[in-house]
Amino acid sequence: MTTAPAPEPAEEIIPRPEMNFAALRVALARVAPVRMPEFLADRDVLFNQATAEQSFSPIRGFLVKWATEIEILRRPALSHRMDEAQRAIHTLDRENPAWRAAMDEALAVHNQAQAAVAGG
Length: 120
Hints:
With about 120 residues, the protein is mostly helical. The chain has 2 domains: about 15-75, no CATH class; about 75-120, no CATH class. Helices cover about 70% and strands about 0% of the residues. Helix 3 packs across helix 4 and helix 3 packs across helix 5 (about 95-115). It starts with 20 loop residues before the first helix and ends with a helix.
């Protein structure tokens, strides 16, 4: 009897959501519901900031930040890379060259996700 190879993880858990509050909220509820309080608190702070500044910039920043976070979470390969980098960042000594490599990896994952949601 032979066993079939384990299936590869799905490339995407959910489709990329549109970059608007409602779509991001629904997507986050599917990929990381535990982060919803953080999302809502962030929204409240930044929407208040936008009102005080009479500017849409804080709202745009909120949308890009959370679209990037969701991009990482919805793609298992990116999420795994970020988890591994974060684990190293939080456990290694800053003098260890592997710590710097982990920081570089976390930045690379973030930049890759942000480029994807920006259409680049």
